[in-house]
Amino acid sequence: MKLLLFNVVIFSSILSQCYAQPNGPYGNNGPTRIELEGKLQAWQGGMMQIVNVAGQPIMFTLPQSPAGIRFTVPVEKAALKPGMVVRFQAPAANGAFLDPIRTLTIFAPDSSKISARSSAIERSMSVPGIYRLSELYRAAPGESASPDVRIVGAILQIEANMLSLNCGNTPMKVELADSPKIEFNSSSLDLARPGDAVKGSATFNPNANQLVASTISVTGAKALTAEAPVVSSPATTKLRVKETPKSKVKASKKAAIPDSPESPLAPQKIEN
After folding, report:
1. Are residues 79 and 171 in the same domain?
2. Is the pTM of this model over 0.90?
3. Where are the beta strands (DSSP E) in the chain?
């Protein structure tokens, strides 16, 4: 719930007195770097107000770039729905994951962040597909290559602990652990609520009476439930995932990792 912020002028005056005094805590009248930490109280548009660890209200301008905003919230397993885009990685051998998946991230893909210049690592974080970490990251001298495989795909079907996924037009089934850790990541604050934990960095400019955040991280205090899992799906984003008919999803209990050189790191087509 977005709450109306007020008393901006009064608050700016207080900030100016606290951070811009020549003999104050920062000792100069220039821009001052400030670390933010507290609980979300209210936010609207480009402004946010928190209550810091000392119980003081702090109001600031949010980062202008979405890259400076990170929102994370736990998600109950029952809240998983077809259409959600997920990412996870786990050790695999002989074309199958060794254990049920214990950690899963739900996110809203954004094709505007991917271009022809994007690295394979950047693509592996958001473009549906199957990615071997041994091909993405070079092992340090004396160390073995990572056995992990990173999967990005859209959920097609959920049956008990089994997820049917479309991974860049490659269907597969994966098994979830009984109590997996699931979270939703986004650069949007649409799901932020009062009481959520907030951390970040900001700069106070006494000449403009402005406290502007460069980065901000908000962690949801309450998990998203099956009753209200308000998360984005491929249908509401620029990156479209072509669904594979459920009849073509492999019935194998463990996910088959295709050995074809075309599937793991081949360029994925992204709609403009």
Report:
1. yes
2. no
3. 32-44, 47-52, 57-61, 69-74, 85-93, 96-97, 101-107, 129-132, 148-159, 162-166, 171-186, 197-205, 210-219
